[in-house]
Amino acid sequence: MALLELKGIDAFYARIQALHGVSLTVDRGEIVALIGSNGAGKTTTLRTISGLMHPAAGTITFDGRDISSTPPHRVVQLGICQAPEGRRLFQRLTVQDNLEMGAYSRRDRGGIRDSLEKVFTLFPRVKERRHQLAGTLSGGEQQMVAISRALMANPRALMLDEPSLGLAPLIVDTIFGIINEINSSGVPILLVEQNAVKALDVAHRAYVLETGTIVQSGPGKELAQSEEVQKAYLGI
Fold first, then answer.
1. Strand pairing partners for 65?
2. Of 32, 60, 95, 181, which has the most beta carbons under 10 Å away?
3. In this structure, are residues 145 and 134 in contact, taking their beta carbons and an 8 Å threshold?
């Protein structure tokens, strides 16, 4: 059984349908990429999983439990955590405060301290900047904090929305190296990313979303060789 499964999800903004029968799975230990152009419905898919939107049709299950109508705070408590597009940090709080906000649903003080040390090991730059206001960090540093904040919730599944957006190529390489490292520690990842080259390179499996519909799926390396995907997303 898949850890996370979407079956036939329809989602709407008012009367505009954003998702049309979307079905996908994320298994334990996997990186699954969701690629597509702007407006394809990638972020809407994550918002629906997170409980920020509820599907008009279809089901979302996590570890065998139906979470289709579960509120966002409860989704986080169940173990699905997200680093959103644009980072969405608390700009006037310190990095340390932002990280502690990520652990708001936890009560295990010792576990929170352990998570903080793991984050600092993974992101030494975040440790260096922990007393700095989040709004004064560079874009790459803010992205590191956003991922760290999500990890502070001790996720059983991590969703990353456009982690490379607006970052310099060298920083993008660093971020994707860390994504691999997080996954190697046992955390499955659902990765939404416009940089299809990078996404397909790290993904065990991937889905292509066009105007709210899944049009292709398969192993990341295989999709990278698809002529349609190369023309549409890889600039080949």
1. 62
2. 95
3. yes
What are the start and end residues of each CATH 3.40.50.300 domain in the chain?
Answer: 72-194
Rounded CA-CA distance 192/34 in Å is: 5
Q: Which among 92, 140, 94, 100 is positioned nearest to 119, based on CA atoms?
A: 100
pTM over 0.70: yes
Please say whether the beta carbons of 35 and 209 come within 8 A: yes
Residue type, 63: D
Which 8-state DSSP code applies to residue 137?
S
In CATH, what class is 72-194?
alpha beta
**Per-residue confidence of the chain (236 residues) as pLDDT tens digits?**
799 999 999 999 999 999 999 999 999 999 999 999 888 999 999 999 999 999 999 999 999 999 999 999 999 999 999 998 878 999 999 999 999 999 988 889 898 999 999 999 999 999 999 999 999 999 999 999 999 999 999 999 999 999 998 889 999 999 999 999 999 999 999 999 988 999 999 999 999 999 999 999 999 999 999 888 888 877 65
